[in-house]
Amino acid sequence: xxxxxxxxxxxxxxxxxxxxxxxxxxxxxxxxxxxxxxxxGGVSISNVTYSGSSTxxxxxxxxxxxxxxxxxxxxxxxxVLNTGQGPHGPNNIDNAGIDNGFPGSPLLSSQIPGxxxxxxxxxxxxxxxxxxxxxxFRYVFGSEEYPxxxxxxxxxxxxxxxxxxxxxxxRNIALTPNTSQVVSINNVNGxxxxxxxxxxxxxxxxxxDGFTRVLTASSKVxxxxxxxxxxxxxxxxxxxxxxxxxxxxxxxxxxxxVDVSAELxxxxxxxPLTMAxxxxxxxxxxxxxxxxxxxxxxxISTSGTAQANIDYxxxxxxxxxxxxxxTTKTFVINALxxxxxEGIENILMTFNVNDPCGNPAPITQELKIADIEPVAxxxxxxxxLCPGDEVKLQAIPSGGVGPYTFLWNDGSGLxxxxxxxxxxxxxxxxVTDNCLKESAxxxxxxxxPQYLPVQLTTDGDEVVLCxxxxxxxxxxxxxxxxxxxxxxxDGNLQISSDDTAYxxxxxxxxxxxVAIDGCNQSDTAYLNYTVTSPPLELTxxxxxxxxxxxxxxxxxxxxxxxxxxxxxxxxxxxxxxQVSVQPFTSxxxxxxxxxxxxxxxxxxxxxxKVVKPTANFEISSKTVYEKIPITFKNTSINAAFYVWxxxxxxxxxxxHPNNTYANSGFYDVMLIAEDxxxxxxxxxxxxxxxEENYVYIPNSFTPDGDRFNNHFEASTIGVLQFNIRIYDRWxxxxxxxxxxxxxxxxxxxxxxxxxxxxxxxxxTFSTLYELDTVKQGFVTLLK
Length: 783
Prior knowledge:
- The protein is mostly beta strands.
- It has two helices and 61 strands.
- The strands form 15 sheets. Strands 1, 2, 4, 5, 7, 10, 11, 12, 14 and 15 form a ten-stranded antiparallel β-sheet that branches.
- β53 (665-674) and β54 form a beta hairpin.
């Protein structure tokens, strides 16, 4: 018969419910690791060898972790020791790993395109004999190269190489599902085959930055033949960052012909296969997974100390027959009550089957039967610290067979009872089992200590003459549990958490103190602190409003207190109740007042507001001329009255006056602004009055020889320098003159009469106060 060989790899998605630390052990030999940790059922191994660093191979356990495997063998390119540089978590180093100096693996180099150099190879290999037509094991590949070096040349590699009958050469069975790609960093990551990848950023169990899901590798084999398995891993292109393979414990196995299991109707004992007499039954399940289309007869032989139909019933069948298509058979065994105290008896069932190779491979299933002890229950007494403290009473049943029912004296039916007694109290519980229907009772006493009430006393009321005298007041508590805490209050303000408080009352007060013991019982007391002198009170003069530099008297009046008053004006050091001040800007004046007690100083302040108007004005236009009226716009602030002096002998009291200057020149205009309090402000501005000037140019003339408008002439006043140029429409100069009294008769510079047209002129002139003023325009010559 020909045998077909194929590879099947699948991945298992694991639900993670928590995290735990990784633990490793390097004390076992390679043979012990394979034989006692990796090996499962249906396979025998021999000739175990290992090459690589002695600290790169070991066993591991994790409990619940995000690795997905609880225990097994770990093989790395660096170390498995807990140095922070290997697989041990948490993931808190960016470049974990060591170069242990061992050579690479040519076999692993051949698995990557380009046949790159490899380093720090660790290789575990052995012979195996499968007792079925396939071998299988589960694994996880992890690496510190994730995720930074995905797609790079640092593509750490591993492989599971099997060779033997029916297999050509050494076949790597560590491939991604349904492909011929090896499982490596570049082939399984967050982008490629992402469903197989776990990012371990911030992981608490494993140091590696990423790893695969739990993968399952299997290969078809010939039953009973010898095969060689080589498990290897290596760094690629450098020996720095580490990678590792985690092989699941007991996962190297071969399929069995038949599996047998047993499940009890109720777990009465810690042993999951021990039945209680008369109360518990067991269901035995036999399953087959191969050749299900044929008939299979499984003979069963029974032995043990228990006797059929005396200790259990019915008797175990002598055989089980699987008809074609049937995969599961069950039968039930009931434990019987015989009324004897016999200890633990057992039933040994041997299912006589052959392995897939045809060799006898009997399977033994044991069940045990135990006597039922009388029902009993216990509840522990307890003592609480304070009345009303909660305590949980737990009823602990034994004997009989559960599930148990509970009944407390308050009617509740749970296994525990939470109580909070104020006095010592007894509590009773009755427990009934589900098998014997027997009941047992127990009681527990919750002892509650009784304390005297908390009592609080102070050191007595105080009477003093002067305020602000520093003093210490105290209180003492008794009764209760002791361990008192104190709180002193001045009104709503807590001023101390000790049995004493430091005070300096400004006037008569009542202080409150509360003492609380360890059971939160409390008492309150009050202490009256009387100050006999009346409070010192200050009354200041009203805040005045004055002009800058005005002298004003300010004062403070004291009342209450004790004896004489003492004054201290902070700005001058004067010691009288009244002082004179002369501020030029608004300001505060502060004064301190004390009395003969000399235990305090009260301060008060007076604000003196300094105000004045602000004089200002503007002129109606930027350029003003002689003999033309000028308007002065008043822009003063906070003023009510005004006096103007225009600098030419004229004056006014109007808000916005006018003035006409007879002659040109510079004039100093003064404005005095006064507010309602009589405060003054003066402003002087220099005003330039220009000499009158005037240039008028007509826009047409008619040089036709009659008596009217025969010349083009300008009218000017106050012009010092003058120039006019006249051009035709093509820009040719027709006429020019520097005389402001020029007269043009409509001829060009050659005295030729010009035709009727529009001509352009440019006039440049200057006056006494203005230089090079330019005017342009057009004049029409008409005929």
